[in-house]
Amino acid sequence: MQEKFRALVVDKAESGDVSTEVRELSIDQLPKGEVTIRAAYSSVNYKDGLASIPNGNIARMYPLILGIDVAGTVVTSSDARFKEGDNVLVTGFELGVAHYGGFSEYVRVPAEWVVPLPSGLTLKEAMAYGTAGFTAALSVQRLEESGVTPEEGEVLVTGATGGVGSLAVAMLAEKGYDVVASTGKDAEHGYLRELGVKEIVTREEMSPETFKPIGKPRWAGAVDPVGGKTLAYILSTTKYGGAVAVSGLTGGTSVPTSVFPFILRGVNLLGIDSVYCPMKIRLPLWERMANDLKPNGLEAGIVHEITLNELPQTLACILQGQIRGRAIVKL
């Protein structure tokens, strides 16, 4: 194991200014943990972008190596569950938030955060998923558990060109659902059609200025990484007994809704937390992501690869909604 490695570090000066740069670090600067990983890939999430800015309210320590995802090979382990040479992945928990993260050639983490790489995935495919893909898969699984089947009708996916949205579209289409995608990007309609959407609606249609607490029912289910007013409108237009899986806040944290969708139509609002999802759910879901939830050509179209040096610009772009699909980092 080499003594020096490169990582993307965010730091805050006494003046309060925040800077992000690639630094050379030594192995002994890594935090405590039972498992040390030689990283192969990481991936870029909206949360990583927030962690890189002063008012993002994500980073809980400075300096901090960013990156809430990583996949690689174990180089040392004091935990019997893992040995040198094992391929593994880590998403969520405190990684890249309050613990040195995955935008790093070496990562050291607690063993209880580590997931063995499923046999149906490569390390690169694992990070084509990353937190966004795990969130999408968890959303799809929760819809299934709530009784939303392809026979029930259309399923809406908002923020459809983003990481969660793109992968949710691909997974749902693979499972035979009629997927309707919401986007504000006219130029990406071809991309969404290739992922398998049946119809595309505009962002504005999903967040009108005014709407009734109970509108015309349309959706059997929805995957919503947007939140805010969009979520309120989706709830008002979801069919009786339908379900909405919400995982994001890019549209805001306030949801101007009422109790009517819940008490008059029996709509289920499903909160999706991929960060602290327990291993009893996490491990079998990653197995599904390597099998029945895995879209054909996972890396084709959805993924583009970048380097550590390109990360600062990519983080700025994801905050501005300028990243299509998934950006993965080769380490």
Automatic annotation (TrEMBL):
<dbReference type="InterPro" id="IPR036291">
    <property type="entry name" value="NAD(P)-bd_dom_sf"/>
</dbReference>
<dbReference type="Pfam" id="PF08240">
    <property type="entry name" value="ADH_N"/>
</dbReference>
<dbReference type="InterPro" id="IPR014188">
    <property type="entry name" value="Acrylyl-CoA_reductase_AcuI"/>
</dbReference>
<dbReference type="Pfam" id="PF00107">
    <property type="entry name" value="ADH_zinc_N"/>
</dbReference>
<protein>
    <submittedName>
        <fullName>Quinone oxidoreductase</fullName>
    </submittedName>
</protein>
<dbReference type="InterPro" id="IPR011032">
    <property type="entry name" value="GroES-like_sf"/>
</dbReference>
<dbReference type="GO" id="GO:0043957">
    <property type="term" value="F:acryloyl-CoA reductase (NADPH) activity"/>
</dbReference>
<dbReference type="InterPro" id="IPR051397">
    <property type="entry name" value="Zn-ADH-like_protein"/>
</dbReference>
<dbReference type="InterPro" id="IPR020843">
    <property type="entry name" value="ER"/>
</dbReference>
<dbReference type="InterPro" id="IPR013149">
    <property type="entry name" value="ADH-like_C"/>
</dbReference>
<dbReference type="InterPro" id="IPR013154">
    <property type="entry name" value="ADH-like_N"/>
</dbReference>
<feature type="domain" description="Enoyl reductase (ER)">
    <location>
        <begin position="16"/>
        <end position="329"/>
    </location>
</feature>
